[in-house]
């Protein structure tokens, strides 16, 4: 920590105008100069005062002799306890005697502390005596003791803060010249004020010291800046101080800039923070990894990947290695934008650079993979963090439990829940709600309600999300009336129903085919609130489309647009599917054209609906044209796209095109459905391409998929004629197991 330095005001004014130490005209207008400090500086330029001479009360001859006896005794008998030594003098000992004794032993620091402790046990010493010991401790470089002595003053006294501050400062100034003359004593006082939250007093101290030609050290000022920035509404003041203090000689360092950069980022002034980073070197400060990491974190938060990459390159040029915080921010951004594999590469880079990833990095990645539906990758990372001795917390467990629940893997979710409790980690409302939602989605509503009861017994209060999950589970089982009763219970408990809760009931009614009740509930929402959202409209549109009521579905779309709601691609896909299912392909094509004209990007599902209907009608030329149009607009085909086209081409006997698409989709990691395998096998067989048909059949068996009975019959006959009795018997067993047994089961049910 730098010592407080004495400046002449004339020198201060020279320093303040140095281009490396003050904000120039190119600085952001966000910074401004306050008048208060300027006035203080102006006044002190002509009235810098010396510290007062210390002149305590003179002792009488009798007091002088008494103090002499005490001094001689404690010096000669210093190995004995002071309480025993001072027993004969205790009845006559006054506060003045303490100060006069300290004068005699001031050069023996250990004895000063022992004697002061004895005096404190007897009675609270006066303020002057405390300040004297503070001065001696500072001069002896025992800064911790000086800090403790000042801090104790604020803890013990229950006076008006402004009065206490004024009195303490007066005594500290009064005792300064004769008892230590170490200016760092004022730094310690400044630090205690800041740590105690007395920020106005700290600033008053700073200004007061300017009258004596003293400036608080930059490290203490940094403490002030940081504490000020964390206080309510204090960021603006911290920036103001940052601009003012160079006027009186405070030379900000890298830590100072980091505080202000962080403050600017906190109030979303990322451009100003970045500008200050650029200006640091021009002002004599070198940015460090904290400077860059703070801004990188903020750019990650707002999703500006390009800025992040540019700053990373700058760090490399300056040979600054990213730290755990830098990497964590980048991992967060990549996960947020769905770039999970790139995020995992960053994790690997961390380890190769010797930076140990923490719980937060792993949890962020686990959450990202769970949201992507890749629970196996999330589990692998979960196991890896435990192998690295990084303990998962309850957030990590909750995240992966939620992932398993979303994937319908309730046994695994239950196992992790038990492991979490065994480790002493307490599940919260989010953990329980994830399990409840998972069991509801898997149709185990009784189990969901059992967990709800456990949750209540644990003293946790179910929230609106919990009850919405339970209502959804009831609706999926067709118990919409019970779900409605649950909603009534929620209202009685004072819970405000949200749009998701209403949407759950609307969705349940639509799936039961009770569209009239769904319409009524939607009308109630419009009147009483919450207002229907895009999901509400899309759900009802889907019900209309599936029942062939396309005019009603189209009117709902128009109502959405008139009400200012933005339809999603799912909304248009619902409408597209409705047109196609109703045979209204011309309307479907018009909808696709309208979407593209309005800048609404279709996805693979949008195109798949059209391609499927044209394939069913054996119009593979148009289906192929739609496929090409889809690729040209930048929409990537999915597994359903390939399966639709393959089945269509096989039906039209276009086996060359079907085989090409099969190889392409396998190369992209997509899997054929059983119906696509069946279509390929039949297509090759009808075209007398037996080798190709056999290859596809064997591949289908390796994938564990069941062929149609007709296809089994073909290959049983074929292998029997070829004399392959072992394969023939094997295929017969498969027919019995997969076709006949399964058919019997279905009849039984």
Indicate the topology.
Blueprint: E1 5-6, H1 9-16, H2 35-47, H3 61-76, H4 82-85, H5 95-105, H6 109-122, H7 127-139, H8 143-156, H9 161-179, H10 184-195, H11 199-210, E2 214-215, H12 218-230, H13 235-244, H14 254-266, H15 270-280, H16 289-302, H17 305-317, H18 324-336, H19 340-352, H20 359-372, H21 375-387, H22 394-406, H23 410-422, H24 429-441, H25 445-457, H26 464-476, H27 480-492, H28 499-511, H29 515-528, H30 534-546, H31 550-562, H32 569-581, H33 585-597, H34 604-616, H35 620-632, H36 639-651, H37 655-667, H38 674-686, H39 690-702, H40 709-721, H41 725-748
Antiparallel strand pairs: 1-2
Helix pairs in contact: 3-5, 5-7, 7-8, 7-9, 8-10, 10-11, 10-12, 12-13, 12-14, 13-14, 14-15, 14-16, 15-16, 16-17, 16-18, 18-19, 18-20, 19-20, 20-21, 20-22, 21-22, 22-23, 22-24, 23-24, 24-25, 24-26, 25-26, 26-27, 26-28, 27-28, 28-29, 28-30, 29-30, 30-31, 30-32, 31-32, 32-33, 32-34, 33-34, 34-35, ...
PPR repeats: 253-287, 288-322, 323-357, 358-392, 393-427, 428-462, 463-497, 498-532, 533-567, 568-602, 603-637, 638-672, 673-707
Protein name: Pentacotripeptide-repeat region of PRORP domain-containing protein
Keywords: Repeat
Low-confidence stretches: 1-35, 38-45, 744-749
| Radius of gyration of CA atoms, rounded to a whole number | 39 Å
- The total beta strand count reads 2
User: How many helices does DSSP assign?
Assistant: 41
Approximate helicity band: over 70%
C-alpha geometry:
elongated
End-to-end separation? 82 Å
Strand order of the largest sheet: 1-2
PPR repeats: 253-287, 288-322, 323-357, 358-392, 393-427, 428-462, 463-497, 498-532, 533-567, 568-602, 603-637, 638-672, 673-707
Protein name: Pentacotripeptide-repeat region of PRORP domain-containing protein
Family: Belongs to the PPR family. P subfamily.
Organism: Morus notabilis
């Amino acid at each position: 920590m730098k010592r407080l330095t004495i400046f002449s005001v004339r020198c201060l004014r020279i320093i303040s105008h140095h281009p490396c130490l003050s904000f120039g005209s190119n600085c952001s207008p966000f910074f401004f100069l306050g008048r208060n400090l300027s006035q203080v500086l102006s006044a002190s330029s002509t009235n810098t005062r010396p510290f007062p001479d210390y002149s305590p009360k003179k002792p009488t001859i009798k007091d002088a002799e008494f103090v002499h006896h005490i001094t001689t005794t404690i010096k000669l008998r210093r190995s004995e306890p002071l309480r025993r030594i001072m027993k004969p003098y205790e009845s006559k000992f006054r506060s003045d005697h303490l100060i006069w004794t300290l004068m005699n032993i001031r050069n023996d620091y250990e004895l000063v502390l022992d004697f002061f402790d004895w005096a404190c046990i007897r009675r609270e010493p006066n303020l002057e005596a405390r300040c004297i010991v503070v001065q001696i401790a500072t001069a002896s470089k025992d800064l911790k003791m000086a800090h403790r002595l000042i801090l104790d003053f604020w803890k013990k006294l229950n006076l008006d803060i402004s009065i206490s501050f004024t009195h303490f400062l007066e005594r500290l100034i009064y005792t300064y010249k004769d008892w230590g003359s170490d200016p760092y004593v004022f730094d310690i006082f400044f630090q205690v004020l800041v740590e105690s939250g007395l920020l106005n007093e700290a600033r008053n101290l700073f200004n007061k010291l300017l009258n004596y030609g003293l400036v608080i050290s930059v490290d203490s000022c940094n403490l002030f800046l940081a504490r000020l920035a964390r206080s309510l509404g204090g960021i603006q003041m911290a920036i103001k101080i940052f601009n003012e203090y160079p006027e009186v000689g405070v030379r900000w360092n890298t830590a100072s800039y980091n505080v202000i950069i962080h403050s600017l980022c906190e109030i979303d002034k990322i451009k100003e923070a970045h500008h200050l980073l650029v200006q640091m070197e021009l002002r004599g400060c070198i940015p460090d990894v904290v400077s860059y990491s703070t801004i990188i974190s903020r750019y990650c938060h707002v999703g500006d990947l390009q800025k992040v990459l540019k700053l990373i390159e700058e760090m490399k040029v300056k040979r600054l290695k990213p730290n755990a915080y830098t990497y964590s921010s980048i991992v967060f951004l990549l996960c947020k934008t769905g770039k999970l594999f790139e995020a995992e590469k960053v994790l690997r880079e961390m380890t190769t650079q010797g930076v140990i990833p923490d719980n937060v990095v792993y949890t962020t990645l686990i959450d990202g993979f769970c949201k992507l539906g890749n629970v196996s990758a999330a589990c692998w990372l979960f196991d890896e963090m435990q192998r690295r001795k990084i303990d998962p917390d309850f957030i990590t467990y909750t995240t992966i439990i939620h992932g398993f629940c979303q994937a319908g893997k309730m046994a695994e979710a239950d196992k992790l829940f038990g492991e979490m409790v065994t480790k002493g980690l307490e599940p919260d409302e989010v953990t329980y709600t994830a399990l409840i939602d998972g069991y509801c989605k898997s149709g185990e509503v009784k189990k969901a309600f059992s967990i709800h009861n456990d949750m209540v017994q644990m003293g946790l209060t179910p929230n609106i999300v919990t009850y919405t999950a339970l209502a959804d589970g009831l609706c999926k089982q067709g118990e919409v009336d019970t779900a409605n009763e649950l909603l009534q219970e929620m209202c009685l408990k004072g819970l405000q129903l949200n749009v998701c809760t209403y949407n759950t009931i609307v969705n349940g009614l639509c799936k039961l085919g009770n569209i009239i009740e769904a319409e009524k509930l939607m009308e109630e929402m419009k009147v009483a609130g919450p207002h229907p959202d895009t999901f509400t409209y899309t759900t009802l549109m889907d019900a209309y489309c599936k029942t062939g009521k396309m005019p009603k579905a189209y009117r709902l779309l128009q109502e959405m647009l008139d009400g200012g709601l933005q339809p999603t691609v799912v909304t248009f896909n619902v409408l597209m599917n409705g047109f196609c299912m109703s045979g209204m392909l011309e309307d479907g094509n018009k909808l696709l054209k309208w979407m593209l004209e309005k800048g609404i990007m279709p996805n693979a599902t949008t195109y798949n609906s059209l391609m499927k209907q044209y394939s069913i009608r054996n119009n593979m030329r148009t289906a192929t044209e739609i496929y090409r149009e889809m690729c040209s607009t930048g929409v990537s085909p999915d597994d359903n796209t390939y399966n639709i086209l393959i089945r269509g081409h096989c039906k039209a006997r276009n086996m060359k095109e079907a085989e090409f698409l099969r190889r392409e989709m396998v190369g992209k990691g997509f899997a054929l459905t059983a119906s696509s395998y069946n279509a390929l096998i039949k297509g090759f067989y009808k075209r007398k391409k037996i080798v190709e048909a056999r290859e596809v059949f064997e591949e289908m068996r390796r994938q564990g998929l069941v062929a149609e009975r007709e296809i089994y019959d073909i290959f049983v006959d074929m292998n029997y004629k070829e004399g392959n009795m072992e394969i023939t018997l094997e295929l017969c067993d498969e027919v019995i197991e997969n076709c006949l047994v399964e058919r019997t089961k279905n009849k039984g049910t």
